[in-house]
Amino acid sequence: MTTTNETRPAEAAPKDTAGRTGKPVVELKGTGKSYGNIRALHGVDLAVHPGKVTCVLGDNGAGKSTLIKIISGLHQHTEGEFLVDGEPVRFSTPREALDKGIATVYQDLAVVPLMPVWRNFFLGSEMTKGPWPIRRLDIEKMKKTADEELRNMGIVLDDLEQPIGTLSGGQRQCVAIARAVYFGARVLILDEPTAALGVKQSGVVLKYIAAARDRGLGVIFITHNPHHAYMVGDHFSVLRLGTMELNASRDEVSLEELTNHMAGGTELAALKHELAQVRGVDVEDLPEEEDLTAPVATTGEAVS
Ligand SMILES: Nc1ncnc2c1ncn2[C@@H]1O[C@H](COP(=O)(O)OP(=O)(O)OP(=O)(O)O)[C@@H](O)[C@H]1O
Ligand SMILES: [Mg+2]
């Protein structure tokens, strides 16, 4: 008899009941976090719905990582409420968040560069066959499943035997997204997945964010880039110095407004003034504020 150690929860996850009732899977109400005397986050409201992309934007130090650390179980909030499926929760470890279907893809992905793509796909949750004590890895099944799952997400790689380290950063992000979808994530948190990527690769990652959304996952997309956010986002939250400066749905905010919130028009004006004091910089030659945030082009087919 063959036994298979497959940790994937039955097909179920994306078709979460929360989707049908319209209730958020994850919700923050007036949530905050202090590290000793430092108040990193304060009064944050956020709702993550199945099949929607919630973008969290903010400058360096705004509190984005702190926010996702609370949701992903790395840190605990010190103020307000954190609800999953309407129930208050307080995770002690990332494992507890994962058990609730909350998966996080970090920018420096935890992959083993020299191992093949399929091996990384199953890293830590390998499929096995045969009874104990002669249980061994079910290599054929893992290869076949990884191939199917990547194709299901529209990701076509030439060879799953190639070391994952030979893939581009964008492709690795896509494999990580497909992996989270396969292992039954209901909420997918992406920490600046496009930050280190070029224009074309960013487009590819955005396409798979849209694919995860279409599979019914609630996506939390952390980014500095309002253009990337606006391409896939349904809801936008802008953090500034730990508080929520903007909390708006797509029909309440234009790309231009979002860009202005991110760029901080007055700060740019001050910067221009400062640069004018520096010898050799002719302030008249500097672009106008809106030019400094010129749109980042992405491939047309990048987002559905
Ligand atoms: N472990 C910690 N101990 C003390 N202060 C911290 C800790 N982590 C973050 N902070 C502080 O909390 C604030 C928010 O930091 P956070 O890392 O959440 O910002 P961020 O928006 O992710 O920034 P970045 O874009 O640079 O990643 C910062 O002032 C930071 O110094
Ligand atoms: Mg951060």
Describe the fold and architecture:
- With 304 residues, the protein is an alpha/beta fold.
- It has one domain: 3-Layer(aba) Sandwich (Rossmann fold), CATH 3.40.50.
- It is built from ten helices and twelve strands.
- It has helices spanning 17-21, 64-71, 94-99, 117-121, 139-152, 169-182, 199-214, 226-232, 255-263, 265-277; strands at 26-35, 38-48, 53-58, 79-84, 87-88, 102-105, 128-129, 136-137, 187-191, 218-223, 235-240, 243-249.
- A six-stranded mixed sheet has the order 6-9-10-3-11-12, with helices on both faces.
- A hairpin with a 2-residue loop joins strand 4 and strand 5 (87-88).
- Helix 6 (169-182) packs parallel to helix 7 (199-214).
- The chain is globular and about 70 Å long.
- The chain starts with 16 loop residues before the first helix and ends in a 27-residue tail after the last helix.
- The model is unreliable at 1-21 and 289-304 (pLDDT under 50).
- It binds adenosine-5'-triphosphate and magnesium ion.
- Adenosine-5'-triphosphate binds next to strand 2 and helix 2.
